[in-house]
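Following up on my earlier message about pyridoxal-5'-phosphate. Here are the inputs again, as you asked, copied directly from the submission form:
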Amino acid sequence: MKEELDERERMGRLRRLSTAVWLNDGWIERDGKRLLNLASNHYLGLSPWVSGKEWEALRRETEAMGEPGVRIGAGASRLIGGHDPHHQALEREMAEFKQREACLVFTSGYMANAGVIAALVGRHDAVFSDRLNHASIVDGIVLSRAHHVRHPHRDLNRLEAQLKKWSAGATGEAGRVPRKLIVTDSVFSMDGTEAPLADLVTLKERYGAMLMVDEAHSGGVYGPEGRGMCHELGLHERVDVIMGTYGKAFGAVGAYIAADGIVIRYLVNRARTFIYNTGLPPFMAALIRARLREVRAADEARSELMRKAALFRARLRAGGLDTGEGASHIVPVMLGTDERAVAVSAALAEAGIAGVAIRPPTVPEGAARIRFAPTPQHRDEDLLRVADTVARLAQYI
Ligand SMILES: Cc1ncc(COP(=O)(O)O)c(C=O)c1O
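Thanks, got it. Here's what our run produced:
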């Protein structure tokens, strides 16, 4: 282990934890230093703290449900007596929000992706996955033991060729027609690019595949009331499985799957990360319900976020930097080598800016970068200053 860690250190790939204390208005304190926090997924800038008033409302609401207090732990898997009235209410409210028949809450996005993909497909099936899909999707595919058919980022021609080939050669070894699942991030987490969702829906319908869309980075940010990218494009009824997390724009933790009732009933019976995992803490389910109301009302924050991200990206580009092909609220600055990304990140910290170096294997070899995520709280002048600082640093590092 030591040799491996030393090797990682030598390659500039060692990961380390550092404690960050969240301050007001998009700032953090790390190692005693105040930093403008452009390294979070707290996209709407909702208050990261629970207020006394919020707790009080939560306590009263819980008592009205017939419970003596707000429960901390679910106490068991939700199937074994851990299903709280707040879980039930959250799933009902989420199904209404996502305008789908039913919804199922998981303890994290990682758990949702790992469990759902492994439940939907098995050894005789195939998953068609964009090369830049999140690690939790990749792990779900590995866990499923299905054929892992990857295509270059957003390459629809390659995907169609693969779907065609698989459909022609498919056998009935599974004792049923082999399943095909297309799975994609909606907004790609490290590139800020958007998935070609309309085309994916066309392909999935043409080749009789299922489509699962991970809205981790678009939930709360895209679409009316933050319902997500599938809604923004009017595709929410044509996507088989919509997944999203509460750890990003919602500022909480946990995840949901929205789908037809039969899919949700199937997952309750088949998704091992739901069946064999202690349920989401009931107090968190209750706080997410409050968060859902805030997210729905956050239209102003959503448009400010997009305006600020566009302003920031334009300034970076004007400074000669490569911000990739995306146009979303996630803004990467491509730096190439690991060493360069690490050195720029360290120099940014010196300048009072938190911007994290993202290196392989999170991104492809030679594509190290700093990933910036502005929030509506960041002032325009601060973002412009950060862009100018990055441009200056990139000239000599
Ligand atoms: C696209 C995507 N899906 C899933 C996850 C996992 O979600 P969670 O952090 O809730 O486990 C993340 C990030 O964490 C992500 O970026």
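One observation from looking it over: The first strand starts at residue 20 and ends at 22. Hope that helps, and feel free to reply on this thread.
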